[in-house]
Amino acid sequence: MRLWPRRRPVPAPERPRANPTHVAVLEHDLLGVKPEPGSAAALTIALRRVGSCFEHDPVDTSTMADPRPTGQCSRCGRHMIQDSEGHWQVVLQP
Ligand SMILES: [Zn+2]
């Protein structure tokens, strides 16, 4: 005869998982890992180059080794460079 009821194990609450597409895009940007072809991450990165940015928002990412100020658009991710007059231009990559 049991005097106390047995406690049932309470399942742990599920933690929110990171978006795998966002993780793949960050891996590409930070580590240079190419996403799987045909995946949503590959499409996201490819669409950046289409020019979906209406007005670029450059962020200065230049270092002491750079001869000219370089940057990257915080919206579309394209690399930019600042000319001698202070205007940012998109770097044309082959
Ligand atoms: Zn842009």
Q: What's the average pLDDT?
A: 85
Sheet with most strands: 4 strands, antiparallel
Count of separate DSSP helical elements: 2
Return the domain count: 2
Strand content: 5-15%
Description:
The chain is an alpha+beta fold. The chain has two domains: 19-48, no CATH class; 53-94, no CATH class. 22% of the residues lie in helices and 15% in strands. It has two helices and four strands, in the order ααββββ. It has a four-stranded antiparallel β-sheet with strand order 1-2-3-4, with no helix packed on it. A hairpin with a 5-residue loop joins β2 and β3 (79-82). α1 packs across α2 (40-48). The model has no long low-confidence stretch (mean pLDDT 85). The structure holds zinc ion (ZN). Zinc ion (ZN) is lined by residues 53, 56, 73, 75-76, 78.
Structure described in brief:
With 94 residues, this protein is an alpha+beta fold.
What structural keywords apply?
single chain; about 90 residues; binds zinc ion; 4-stranded antiparallel beta sheet; alpha+beta; 4 strands; 2 domains
Layout of helices and strands:
Elements: H1 20-31, H2 40-48, E1 58-60, E2 70-73, E3 79-82, E4 88-90
Antiparallel strand pairs: 1-2, 2-3, 3-4
Helix pairs in contact: 1-2
The structure holds zinc ion.
